[in-house]
Design brief:
Aspartate Aminotransferase, domain 2; alpha/beta; Aspartate Aminotransferase, domain 1; single chain; binds 4'-deoxy-4'-aminopyridoxal-5'-phosphate; three-stranded antiparallel sheet; 42% helix
């Protein structure tokens, strides 16, 4: 009789896999899972293929291919106050997911509490749980999805060790502003917390909003692990090349876990990402421009179909209020949307600690717009039929 670890029994298949399977089974347009339905730049693919052909197919150094770490350190130095030593403070992971997992394994002990805004990315509680720690949610209340100092204070206990921040934020699309980040900074310093900052959508922020890293505020870098990924920035989510910047001591702790988790991230794909980091600034401005068009198109379609939604400041997600269309809970609504109307979206209650309470309280689903305009337009024409008798 197979015995399943009690620790992992409560973690089933992720909502993203479930909704993607449902989308395939129903022939639905998949705006549920956040992966582009287009490829990133050819020059990146060619560089990875060339690396494979040149025999770069064995283990990379565990912290990552040196040239890639050097380029990442160089790019970070152009954007931020703190410079990171590529040798001892920059590490390549198999996606931001692995970096988050290693950070939570490396830093926390059973009973520790980690604060995170909810709704939150669903890997956070799983990663915390496997180190015996737990995520304590701080609500970002709709429709503004912001917070107050007192909502932060209410969540603190003797066991609170860290803030796990995600900005730009999945699923709400918030890019936290200077005032909000200053509140977080004061709070973190007052309680002597570590900061893990997940910035995987850093390049997908739409003006006038700007991406700002909490680690760039005074006294923050020394207590922060800054995590990002090439997945969204270069439209290769399947390559799973992520990275983290952290002071030497914290980096050593992350690497201790990383070397026994995957040891190293896929070597030729790291070489591919060297070509990605050599792309000029026009790549990034075009990326944002394209995404802004997709965002605005989806927003128009959602509003025309009877959803209430605001333009997100960042990411490639829109959370849409469907309360003018239906009174059922979000799990049911997302299923109906997929099976009857053939557009898949994610119910947002799954991103809360108390999912049942969230399902009673909120009427939101998340749509991804990392799709060709034709895909979004097709989803739009299906969504417009929801209100037809
Ligand atoms: N953090 C957030 C907030 C995300 O949305 C995602 C991807 N959906 C990740 C981390 C994981 O990134 P990666 O694919 O690089 O592991």
């Amino acid at each position: 009789m197979p015995k399943i670890s009690a620790k992992w029994r409560d973690f089933g298949t992720s909502i993203f896999s479930i909704m993607t399977q449902k989308a395939i089974a129903s022939g639905a347009v998949n705006l549920a899972q956040g992966f582009p339905d287009f490829d990133g730049p050819t020059v990146i693919k060619d560089a990875a293929i060339a690396a494979i052909k040149a025999g770069r197919n064995q283990y990379a150094p565990a912290p990552g291919v040196p040239e890639l770490r050097q380029l990442l350190a160089q790019r970070k130095a152009e954007q931020s106050q703190r410079t990171y030593d590529w040798h001892s403070e920059v590490t390549i992971f198999s996606g931001a997911s692995e970096a988050i997992f290693c950070a939570l394994q490396a830093l926390f002990d059973p009973g520790d509490e980690i604060l995170a805004f909810e709704p939150y990315f669903d890997s956070y509680p799983a990663a915390a749980h496997s180190s015996g720690a737990r995520i304590v949610g701080i609500p970002l209340d709709p429709p503004s999805f912001t917070f107050t100092r007192s909502s932060l204070e209410q969540a603190v206990t003797k066991r609170t060790r860290a803030l796990l921040l995600n900005s730009p934020h999945n699923p709400t699309g918030r890019a936290f502003n200077q005032v909000e980040l200053e509140i977080l900074r004061d709070f973190v310093l007052a309680h002597d917390l570590l900061v893990i900052t997940d910035e995987v959508y850093e390049e997908l922020v739409y003006s006038p909003a700007k991406h700002q890293s909490i680690a760039d505020l005074p006294d923050m870098a020394e207590r922060s692990i800054v995590i990002s990924s090439t997945a969204k920035t270069f439209s290769f989510t399947g390559w799973k090349v992520g990275y983290a910047f952290a002071p030497k001591e914290l980096t050593a702790a992350l690497r201790a876990v990383h070397q026994f988790t995957v040891f190293c991230s896929a070597t030729p794909l790291q070489y591919g990402m060297i070509a990605a980091l050599e792309l000029g600034p026009e790549y990034f401005s075009e990326l944002r421009q394209d995404y802004r068009l997709r965002r605005d198109l989806l927003l128009t379609e959602l509003r025309a179909s009877g959803f209430r939604a605001e333009a997100p400041e960042g990411t490639y997600f829109i959370v849409a209020d469907y309360s003018d269309l239906s009174t059922v809970d979000d799990l049911k609504f997302a299923s109906q949307l997929t099976e009857q109307h053939k557009v898949a979206a994610i119910p947002i209650s799954v991103f809360y600690t108390d999912q049942q309470l969230a399902a009673r309280r909120y009427r939101y689903v998340r749509f991804a717009f990392c799709k060709n305009q034709a895909t979004i337009a097709e989803a739009g024409s299906r969504l417009r039929r929801i209100r037809e008798p």
